[in-house]
Amino acid sequence: MNSEQPEAFQKVEAQELGDALRAGLGTEEDEAFDQFIPYQDQQVSTDYWTPLRVATRAAQWLNYFGARSVVDVGSGVGKFCVAAALGSTCQFTGIEHRPRLVEAARTLAQLFEVSDRVAFVESAVIDVGWPKADAYYLYNPFGENLASEKFQIDRDVELGLARYQREIAAAERYIEHAPRGTFVLTYNGFGGRVPDSYEEVAVDRDLPYELRMWRKTRQTGAGRVWRSG
């Protein structure tokens, strides 16, 4: 957050931007939104945090298909959860393994006054079963494992090919065994398989990366490959 601005002024700006997002407006205002996250995390926003127009589109789809609860796998500073909560009526839970990002995300939810519908769990994907939800959102959450150190968020957590493979395998299991009717949204993929038991119900190719939404229509399926990138 911009420490040079008085707290009262920050709250007024957050209220104005929040109102715009609730109305489906202000979807190009990423810089305006990012000022409310820690400075060091603003620097990686274009690489790791969901753009507002993506969150807005996802929120529209979630509303349309009647999803009530959403889990963001690898929620970072909470940008997707907070922005999508402003544009929908869903309950959001973010899973994030960096404690400082969880703290920043909780602060963001409080600032935009959505803490009653947005919560964050400090855990690695492979260490916790995903909370039950109507929908799961994945913005290529494991890709950082394959990035060079220069393009990683930090070195505070384990990263590497071995972890990438474990997390992809865990994500595939969770998706495969989810109940019928579950939705999966991917932005820039997630590196793994979306089973054939899911039917694609929405896609937007006019964003920086493709945003896709699937719904599980039957209980079994082998899997189609949908690689990130």
Any overview of this molecule?
- This protein is of the alpha/beta class.
- 35% of the residues lie in helices and 18% in strands.
- Strand 4 (135-138), helix 8 and strand 5 (183-187) form a beta-alpha-beta unit.
- Helix 5 (52-65) crosses helix 6 (79-86).
- The radius of gyration is 17 Å and the shape is globular.
Furnish the topology, listing elements before pairings.
Elements: H1 7-22, H2 30-34, H3 39-42, H4 45-48, H5 52-65, E1 69-73, H6 79-86, E2 91-96, H7 99-111, E3 118-122, E4 135-138, H8 161-176, E5 183-187, E6 193-194, E7 198-204, E8 211-216, E9 224-225
Parallel strand pairs: 1-2, 1-4, 2-3, 4-5
Antiparallel strand pairs: 5-8, 6-9, 7-8
Helix pairs in contact: 5-6
How would you briefly describe this protein structure?
The chain is α/β, with parallel strands linked by helices and 229 residues long.
How would you sum up the major sheet? Answer: 7 strands, mixed
Tell me the fraction of residues in β-strands, as a range: 15-25%
What is the CA-atom radius of gyration, in angstroms?
A: 17 Å
Unreliable stretches: 221-229
In total, the number of domains comes to: 1
CATH architecture: 3-Layer(aba) Sandwich
Keywords:
Rossmann fold, disordered C terminus, 229 residues, seven-stranded mixed β-sheet, two-stranded antiparallel ribbon, alpha/beta, 18% strand
